[in-house]
Design a protein that fits this description.
Elements: H1 3-15, E1 24-28, E2 40-46, E3 64-70, E4 73-79, H2 90-93, H3 95-102, E5 107-116, E6 126-134, H4 162-175, E7 179-186, H5 195-203, E8 208-210, H6 214-222, E9 226-236, H7 247-256, H8 258-271
Helix pairs in contact: 1-3, 4-8
The structure holds hypoxanthine (HPA).
């Protein structure tokens, strides 16, 4: 089956189960799924019940869509994402974003857990993504272009929509939340980086490192969506501290900043210009 047919089939299955048309899509990263619990009048759909959706194999990622109202705005939340390192193809990784677009969603919020490359950025800090450096050679747009979504050669001069970042920073200030802003480096994983790789990424101008987000952002940008990326810095990058990295630290920090993360994202959704 052609990819476009798969997208319309999956989007159709979602549409059949909802009464509202979501306008903002949110992807919740490792340990950050609690925001889905804030959605009012939720309709919950397991990824397993949607054709062509894949289920995450990673601890901290539950696999369901939650559709409803967040701060009075109709949202579709992906509670848990799949990653390239799990063995999925790029097309599978970005499939949910393409379904969002097919459902008429033009705004995307992507969140993740990331390691800090900068000694000024500490575990527990939230970082708005200003730009990214892609260290993974594969691309979700490799292969025949889907002309219905966007052009063959897409522009990435403003992948994280500037006006949205300005709005998000204002929300942070109003809530008294210190919001860092920086460059996210996309590494393939699933190994954490070596200390030398962390030094390299810092030299290249990166502030955070992670194993997700960039495929979804490229796909959304290609399809003309407004995009915001938010990293929860869960640990210092390898070698910055004299200690090994552990996934439990990543999940625990996500839990520690849960309240701040939820209140910031709710405010951002409230202020998000739609329609
Ligand atoms: N590196 C890569 N991915 C991550 C990290 C890290 O240090 N922390 C959370 N996700």
């Amino acid at each position: 089956m052609e990819i476009l047919d798969q997208i319309h089939q999956a989007a159709g299955r979602i549409k059949d189960q909802i009464d509202i048309m979501p306008q903002i899509g949110l992807i919740l990263g490792s340990g950050l799924g609690a925001l889905a619990g804030e959605v009012k009048d939720p309709v919950t759909i397991s990824y397993g019940d949607i054709p062509h959706f894949q289920e995450s194999t990673v601890e901290g990622h539950s696999g369901q869509l939650v559709i409803g109202l967040l701060e009075e705005k109709p949202v579709l939340v992906l509670q848990g994402r799949i990653h390239y390192y799990e063995g999925f193809t790029m097309n599978q990784v970005v499939f949910p974003v393409r379904c969002m677009k097919a459902l008429g969603i033009n705004s995307l919020v992507v969140t993740n857990a990331a390691g800090s490359l900068d000694t000024e950025y500490h575990p527990g800090d939230l970082m708005l993504i200003r730009d990214h450096i892609k260290m993974v050679s594969d691309s979700p747009l490799r292969g025949p272009n889907i002309d219905e979504f966007g052009p063959r050669f897409n522009d990435l001069s403003d992948p994280y929509t500037k006006d949205i970042r300005t709005m998000a920073k204002k929300c942070g200030r109003e809530l008294g939340i210190v919001l860092k802003e920086g460059v996210y480096c996309y590494m393939p994983g699933p190994s954490y980086e070596t200390a030398s790789e962390v030094r390299m990424l810092k030299l290249l101008g990166g502030h955070a490192v992670g194993m997700s987000t960039v495929p979804e952002v490229i796909t959304a940008g290609h399809a003309g969506m407004n995009v915001m990326g938010l990293s929860c810095l869960t640990n210092m990058g390898t070698g910055i501290l004299d200690q090994p990295l552990d996934h439990s630290e990543v999940v625990e920090t996500g839990v520690r900043v849960r309240e701040t993360f939820i209140s910031l994202l709710k405010r951002i959704v409230r202020e998000w210009p739609i329609g």
